[in-house]
Amino acid sequence: MLEEIVSALKKARRVVITTHTRPDGDAIGSQLALGNYLKRQGKDVLMVNQDQSPYNLEWLPGADHIELYDASLRHVEFIAHADVVVILDTNVQERLGSVGKQVRGTTSTKILVDHHTDSENWFDLTLKRESASSTAELLFELFELWDLDGIDHDVAAPLYVAMMTDTGSFRFSNVSANLHRMVAELIERGKFDPSILHAEVYDKKSIEGIKLLSSVLSSIELHYNGRIGTVVVTRRMLSESGASVEETDGFVNQVLSIEGVLVALIFTETERGTKISFRSKGDHFVHKWAQSYGGGGHRNASGAFIIGTLDHAFRKAIASAPHFINLPNLETSSELSDEDAAYLNSLMNSQNN
Ligand code: 5GP
Ligand code: MN
Questions:
Q1: The predicted structure's pLDDT at residue 327
Q2: This prediction's pTM
Q3: Which regions in the chain score pLDDT beneath 70?
Q4: Rounded distance, CA 225 to CA 206, Å?
Q5: What's the CA-to-centroid distance between 334 and ligand 2, angstroms?
Q6: pLDDT at 333
Q7: Distance 346 CA to ligand 2 centre (A)
């Protein structure tokens, strides 16, 4: 399959590359690495997404060439007449936003490169592996087969950032010796300083973001004998801190770092409903839990969106935890404890003040 993908890309003249809504480092880094690589091979490339890139990735080489999908004649035409469409870092149409319908409907060769579970099957060629640390790792394999000499700084830097962000700076369980070999290759070919790239991505927080972290962390709670930890991001916390919701990225990992916590959840209140992010340790998988709310992701990192208030989503998720997580030596109650309920009430009331 990898050979077929490389051959389809070599033959193609016009290539569309797209990725998921609310794109993260692996999404944008992979898109730019592939886009910059293909441009060097003389291809006519359109990088187009439903949503804006996060502010801390705007410096990546080529980031200003990523277009926001606007259903304009130019976009629709380019997609319709593309030889190849590459879908990165998601395997479901819905997560592509309105770009999804457009690319699924074309007759062009649709190539999927992804590492999530439970793929849809409307793609013509697929490079997918759940155990891969990142979409970027799979792209590296593609470049390896094609020609590693095509990896210059503008390919290596975004690919490195993609791997770094999806592995929690090379510390999650998806990190392998093989990934480190790829990273070594990227540093040599890209001639960049890893510490500078790390700082570009992670040391750009605002004081407002840190104040938000402080109020979010003060909402911390442990459930089921300390096996499950939660924090909430209310709209009030957001407006009082003055920070943007993007700055909550990574907050949930603070909860997971508590000894004994198996699963950490962060609930983010939005205008339309509540976003839940799930993170877990070891073999306490959370993807099925997220799927039960229409979401999905990886075994140790998933997400879902619940239409309804924060209070509703919180109660629902906590109550259903024992259905999805093996909570050892516990009396698992399906109700929220009195203490949890009281806490939540106080939180909700304080928001109405
Ligand atoms: P995060 O919690 O950082 O938003 O997402 C963690 C992982 O879960 C990501 O790999 C992402 O692909 C997946 N994910 C997050 N939200 C959703 C969602 O609403 N639907 C699906 N299918 N996956 C999601
Ligand atoms: Mn990814």
A1: 85
A2: 0.90
A3: 328-353
A4: 35
A5: 33
A6: 47
A7: 37
